[in-house]
């Protein structure tokens, strides 16, 4: 009987699951086609005795969508595209550029090998002609050897100039490819987090999602306290402390958060589905975590300290304005020495919170 029911639920997912989803899961009536479909997918997983893990849900989500009407498919796919970045396309382009780069490097090595061979050949010719000149006592023969030598050197020089030009051309092409690859990277190797380019892309993407689904998200900007940096007066030590901050940011972040290096030791965390109050709580936890971390410089113990600016992701502002707003929060924190974080003044609920 169980097998029959399971087969039936798989064949008639669109009807059986949808009919039972409201009562079986105790949910309110769905307010959108996407909610209806998502609950249908979840009900189908349960009906098939499969755990509703992200992988299984994703598998059923894609599979069941194939049986839906074209209008519904287009509607849901358009929503999903808001969440998707062009990671696959970017990866393909990156791989193509890398392959071009490797090909160019191979060509450079080939031209270099030919240059080496020709230089070695020129050395051998000069040694041979030198021996012939030392053995010759006939002025006419000597003159002929010199003429022959000049001809050999001229020919080799022409070849070397041509190969040198080829190498320069290939080098310039490779440099352009390397620059292109660098511009497409999303990772900051110095601090082990995402880079500025990726951060701005994710903020823009999140703003589009907020515009569609009306949830709340926040951005916080974090940097090593400027007074602490001034008191240390050691560039290498400041760099080590900044790297420690980066590690702590990764340690305290959620999987859905985006941790990135904006530049010059300034970090950012994009907190998805997080309102201002929750962002303040996250900032408080982060400042406490950092303040409990010790840093030793020679025989001196330094307590780490950070300053944080908080702002919301508001769709009426550009990505750049959102970032500037979070930076403004940092400046507000600096104005009041009793606080470590502050909400940007452009937020209606902006107040500086004491620890």
How is the secondary structure organized here?
Layout: H1 2-11, H2 13-25, H3 33-47, H4 54-65, H5 70-83, H6 87-135, H7 139-184, E1 187-188, E2 193-194, H8 196-213, E3 218-224, H9 226-232, H10 235-252, E4 258-263, E5 266-271, H11 276-291, E6 294-297, E7 300-303, E8 306-312, H12 319-335, E9 341-343, E10 352-353
Parallel strand pairs: 8-9
Antiparallel strand pairs: 1-2, 3-5, 3-8, 4-5, 6-7, 9-10
Helix pairs in contact: 1-2, 2-3, 3-4, 6-7, 10-11
What does this structure look like?
The chain has 355 residues and is α+β, with helices and mostly antiparallel strands. The chain has 3 domains: 2-83, no CATH class; 87-184; 193-353, Reverse transcriptase/Diguanylate cyclase domain (Alpha-Beta Plaits). The protein is 66% helix and 12% strand. The protein has helices at 2-11, 13-25, 33-47, 54-65, 70-83, 87-135, 139-184, 196-213, 226-232, 235-252, 276-291, 319-335; strands at 187-188, 193-194, 218-224, 258-263, 266-271, 294-297, 300-303, 306-312, 341-343, 352-353. The relative contact order is 0.07.
Question: Which features would summarize this protein structure in a list?
Answer:
two-stranded antiparallel ribbon; Alpha-Beta Plaits; 3 domains; 355 residues; 6-stranded mixed sheet; 12 helices; 66% helix; alpha+beta; disordered C terminus; 10 strands
Give the CA-based shape.
elongated
Biggest pleated-sheet summary = 6 strands, mixed
Low-confidence stretches: 1-31, 348-355
Q: At the third CATH level, what is the topology name of the largest domain?
A: Alpha-Beta Plaits
- Rg measurement, Å: 33 Å
Helix content: 55-70%
| Class per helix and strand makeup | alpha+beta
Content of β-strand: 5-15%
With helices defined by DSSP (H or I, 4 residues minimum), what is the helix count?
Answer: 12
Would you identify the CATH H-level superfamily of the largest domain?
Reverse transcriptase/Diguanylate cyclase domain
């Amino acid at each position: 009987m169980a097998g029959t029911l399971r087969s039936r639920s798989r064949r008639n997912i669109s009807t059986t699951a949808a009919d039972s989803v409201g009562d079986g899961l105790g949910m309110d009536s769905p307010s959108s086609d996407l909610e209806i479909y998502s609950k249908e997918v979840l009900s189908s997983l349960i009906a098939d005795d499969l755990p509703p893990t992200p992988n299984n849900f994703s598998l059923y989500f894609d599979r069941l969508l194939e049986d839906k009407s074209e209008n519904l498919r287009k509607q849901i796919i358009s929503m999903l595209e808001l969440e998707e970045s062009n990671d696959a396309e970017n990866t393909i382009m990156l791989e193509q550029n890398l392959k071009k780069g490797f090909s160019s490097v191979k060509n450079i090595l080939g031209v270099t090998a030919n240059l080496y061979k020709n230089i070695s050949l020129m050395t051998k010719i000069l040694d041979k002609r030198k021996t012939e000149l030392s053995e010759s006592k006939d002025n006419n023969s000597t003159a002929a050897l010199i003429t022959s030598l000049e001809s050999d050197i001229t020919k080799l020089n022409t070849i070397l100039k041509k190969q040198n030009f080829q190498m320069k051309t290939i080098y310039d092409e490779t440099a352009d490819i390397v620059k292109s690859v660098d511009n497409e990277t999303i990772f900051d190797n110095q601090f082990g987090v995402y880079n500025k380019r990726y951060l701005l892309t994710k903020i823009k993407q999140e703003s589009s999602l907020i515009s569609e689904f009306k949830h709340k998200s926040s951005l916080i900007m974090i940097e090593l306290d400027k007074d602490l940096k001034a008191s240390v007066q050691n560039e290498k030590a400041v760099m080590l402390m900044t790297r420690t901050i980066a590690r702590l940011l990764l340690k305290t972040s959620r999987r859905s958060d985006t941790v990135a290096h904006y530049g010059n030791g300034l970090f950012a965390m994009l907190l998805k589905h997080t309102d201002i109050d929750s962002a303040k709580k996250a900032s408080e936890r982060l400042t406490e975590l950092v303040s409990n971390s010790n840093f030793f410089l020679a025989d001196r113990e330094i307590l780490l300290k950070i300053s944080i600016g908080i702002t919301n992701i508001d769709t009426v502002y550009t990505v750049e304005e959102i970032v500037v707003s979070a930076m403004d929060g940092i400046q507000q924190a600096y104005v009041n020495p009793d606080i470590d974080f502050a909400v940007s003044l452009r937020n209606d609920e902006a107040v500086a919170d004491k620890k």
